[in-house]
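Just scan my protein:

——
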Amino acid sequence: MIIIIGIVVCCVGIGLFLARYFFYNKYNVHARKAALDRLSERYQQEFELLSTEFETKEVETKGARYVHMWTFTLQDNQGREFLTYVRLYGLTEKGDGNFHAPDYSSYIDDTYGQLCIEERLDDPFDLHQYRQEKGSKLDEPKWEDYIFTCTKDNMAEIAELLTEIYFEETEFSGGGCLNCLVNKEDGETLFSYFWHDITRELQRQEKEITEQTVQAYILQELKNSFEN
């Protein structure tokens, strides 16, 4: 009897260990830590985890049959709630997993950047109307925060808006967090905005980073794309 009890206890212990450190499921420790670490790195602050949801869906993706996604609801030190997504792909619906913690950092995204930038710029720019609902579809992830439509007539306004985003983003995310697309009316992409790409390019050109140089750079990129 003692041996049987020992075996049962051992099996239960192994099962709990695998559920927390290997299997893709709601209680996976690596997924939660990867999400919190990424947020801390992006925004230089700690967040409180409020809840966790987990779902799996069969997809048609090269090299994988299933997508697994954790949705974490968190709040900052001012009580503002937002979502963070950890998305991984696998070959099986159940029983799939990974001991390698760094792999959980492959596809992580959040809505905190949208929350912060809209508090700062929604008036007068009404950014909410351009917002993309990231994570809204399990099998069709959206990675862009905002998509703007650009014409030759509003090109300068788009460059001004992205410049405002650039400097406001600097205030709450040291390394950048927002991903914006500028498209033509037919949906063709003219320009992809990333804070670090603009910073790196101006540094490469040995230009001082000011509102004037950032706006001039973005405007020129838009003009070049329209001409090509």
Notes: The longest helix spans residues 2-21. Helices lie at 2-21, 29-43, 112-125, 155-172, 195-204, 211-227. DSSP finds six helices and seven strands in the chain.
